[in-house]
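Progress report, Aim 2. The chain analyzed during this reporting quarter is listed below.
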Amino acid sequence: MRMKNLLWLQSGCCGGSTISFLNVDQPDFFTGLRLAGINIVLHPSISLESGREVIDVLEKCRKGEIKIDILAVEGAIHLGPNKTGKYFIFNDRPFKDWITDLARVSDYVVAVGTCASFGGIPAAGSNPMDVTGLQFLRETKGGLLGEGFASAASMPVVNVAGCPAHPDWTYETLMFLASAALRIEDLDRFNRPKFFYSKLAHHACPRNEYYEFKASAVAYSQQGCLFENLGCKATQCESDCNERLWLGRTGSCTRGGFPCISCTSPKFPDGFTPYFSTEKIGDIPTTLPLDVPKAWYVGISGLSKLACPERLRVNAVSFKEIDVDQV
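Predicted C-alpha cells for the chain:
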C-alpha cells in the first residue's frame, strides 16, 4: 500500500506542538509514522532540505507533482497588514497564500495546536498582526480558508487544539486520517476529534475529592482543589489531559499543582484570564463547570462545604511534605 504523504508547515508559532509531537512515545515518533504508513515530505525541524530545495518541494506539491495526503499547519496565519499577509513573506509571497494553495490540493488539512486552530496567543488582545486560525478565529467560523472550505476528501480543517497539543492527539489524528478512519461526525462543534476533546481536563484530576467537597487550596503547593481560589479552568477545558497524562505518562498541569488554563479552547488565552485567581460573584466562581447545570452547582456547593470531612478540610490548606531522599 502506498505511503501517505505528510507536508508540515509552520506559520506564526513557537514550535511547541512540534516539540510535543517529537515526544510521542507509544510508539516513538519515527516508528509511529512508519506504522501508520506516513511519509514526511517536508517538516521545518526534521527534513534535510533547505533554501531553494524547500521551495522546489513546495512548488511540486502545489502543482500536484507530489501528492499531499495530509497538510499539517502549525501556528497562526498572518493576514495583516490590511489583509495582504505581508507580515509574513516566504519566497516573495505571503505565507498565507502558500497555505491556501497547498490546502486546495490536499486530501486532508490539520491545524496542529490552538494557534493554527483558533488564532491562540498571537490573536490575543487587539490582534495587532491580524492573525487567524485556518478555519476559525476564536469561536467564529471562517479563518483563512473560509467557513465552507472542504479538503479534497470533503473534510473541514481538523483542529488538534492545545498549547501545545498532546503528542498522542497529533499522532492518532494523523493515523486516523492516513487510514481514512476519521469522519465529519467524529468532530465536535469546533472540528476537534471527539476522541480527545469530549471530556474535561477536570475528569480524573487527583484533586477531585477536594473539588467535590469544595475543600480548596488558598495558596500554591497546598493539597486542595485549585478551582475555587487559584484560577483553575479544568472544569472548562475540553480535553483528556488527566486521563492520558503528559511527560512520560506521569503528569498534567493539575497533578503538578498548576491551574489548568484551558489551552484547548477557542477562547484561549483571553477568555480565561486572570489565570492565577478566580473571579467570583459573591462566593460563586464566574467560570462554572461545563459538566453540571449552573443552578445545581450554585445550590449544592454550600451543602458540599457543610458535608466536608475534617480530614479534607485540614489537608486542603496543608503543604504536602516531600521526602528529599526520593527526589
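The longest strand covers residues 4-10. Residues 4-195 form a domain with the Rossmann fold fold (CATH 3.40.50.700). These observations will guide the mutagenesis work planned for the next reporting period.
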